[in-house]
Amino acid sequence: MNALANMAAEVPENPLVPPIPELVIGLIAFFIVFGFLAKKFLPNINKVLEERRKQIEGRIEEAEATQAEAQQVLADYRAQLADARHEAARLRQEAQEQGATLIAEMRAEGQRQREDIIAAGHAQIEADRKQAALSLRQDVGKLATELAGKLVGESLEDAARQSRTIDRFLDEVEAKAASDTTKAEAGR
Amino acid sequence: MSAETMLAFDTECHLFIPGCGFEAPGLHSFVFEPLFTIGGYEFNKPMLLAFLSTIVVVGFFWAAFGRAKVVPGKLQMIGEAGYDFVRRGLVYDALGKREGDKYVPFMVSLFFFVWMMNLWSIIPVMAFPVTSVIAFPVGMALIVYVLWMYLTFKKQGFVGGLKNISGYDKSLGWVLPLIMVLELLQHLIIRPFTHAVRLFANMFAGHLLILLFTIASWYMLNGVGIVYAGASFVMTIVMTAFELFIQAVQAYVFVLLACNYVQGALAEHH
Q: What sections of the sequence does the record tag as coiled-coil (chain A) (predicted)?
């Protein structure tokens, strides 16, 4: 209680009246802080912050340069690609043209060969026909002679007999023709 | 230093002990016996804490920015955050980057120094906000005031400076004398006074509240009073947390006002 009473006695009249020693000490304490910060630490950190800013800007510039380069490379690549495409298209066009020419030539050649073959066939057929006509004529002559001989050999007594003879002859001729055909087929 | 001078109340006294009342904290809680005396001048606890604030703030920035690196360490990152908070949030905001750069070191120092002086309130053992002794806020406010007046007259010239602090404006007509009296009063007396007292009173009241609940917790710690003591102790914790917030806010407001005053000094007469 005694100490408390002592303290109470020391209480200043007005707490808003600043004691001078405290005021001076406060100012000194503050100016030490201010001195250190203003002269040393804050310039220090400002330098570092500036350096960091520059580095970041440098990095950004670097990145921009890289990006520009990448763009350039991409553009080059695209140009090359377009060239290659044009080249390929040109080659394809050429090949098509060449192919078309080749086909036309071959078609002309085929046409020619076909006409040759047809002409040869026609000639062959003509020859065969001539030969067949010749042989037919001979055969017809021979048959006519044979028939005449038979007609003459038989007595021409009645019409029935005559007609029988003619029928028989024609049957023979037909049979002969049939056997000829069979022979020709077998011979083939 | 006895326990009584440390704690500023009677430790043997409790509730329900006859002849022993509750000793509420008061003005006497803000007066300390000198730790030692130099040439007739007393050196007391608030002075010690003021110097400790200097050491802590300078020490922190030494550790954080002493060997600052482009790629910051943890401490430097914290320091940069604090530095940037004051620089951008307060100085650039009020003064702009071009004008404000000159005042950044001052405002940064002011903010961290005032904050640290406030912070001692909730640091165990120390447990006293230096700024609850009026001399310290007055000192800080005085520096700001001197800077403010110096800038006013340097920037605006003598007549312009007078016009600036007296709110001279011809268009006001016959109310001009009244306005001029009010403006002069405000600029020369009220503003610096409130600047200092706002900080002082907040810290003073906060400390008083914490003290009150702390002492009450101890005082009521007897018999059934333990319940009240518990409630009081919870309030002590709550008030301590609240003070932590108020300390930062008051340091912020103090520097914010300083920035506004400097801005007013630099601005053309309005």
A: 46-101
pTM of the model: 0.71
Place of tokens 């650039």: B92
- Nearest residue on chain B to A41, judged by CA atoms? B65
Using the beta-carbon criterion (under 8 Å), do A32 and B54 form an inter-chain contact?
Answer: yes
B136/A contact by beta carbon, under 8 A: yes
Task: Give pLDDT tens digits for A111-157.
Answer: 999 999 999 999 999 999 999 988 888 888 788 777 777 777 665 56
For B156, the token pair is: 């605006």
Query: A143, exposed or middle or buried, with CB in 10 Å at 0-12, 13-18, 19+?
Result: middle
Q: Which one of A10, A40, A44 has the shortest CB-CB distance to B31?
A: A10
Distance of residue A68 Cα from the nearest chain B Cα, in angstroms: 28
Residue A9 lies in a domain: no
pLDDT in tens, B158-186: 988 888 888 888 888 888 889 899 999 99
Q: Three-state SS across B53-109?
A: HHHHHHHHHHHHHCCCCCCCCHHHHHHHHHHHHHHHHHHHHHHCHHHHHHHHHHHHH
Mutation test of the interface with chain B: which of A37, A50, A52, choosing the one with the most B Cβ atoms within 10 A? Answer: A37
Residue A5 is assigned to a structural domain of this protein: no
Answer yes or no: is A187 within a domain: no
- Quote the number of domains for chain A: 1
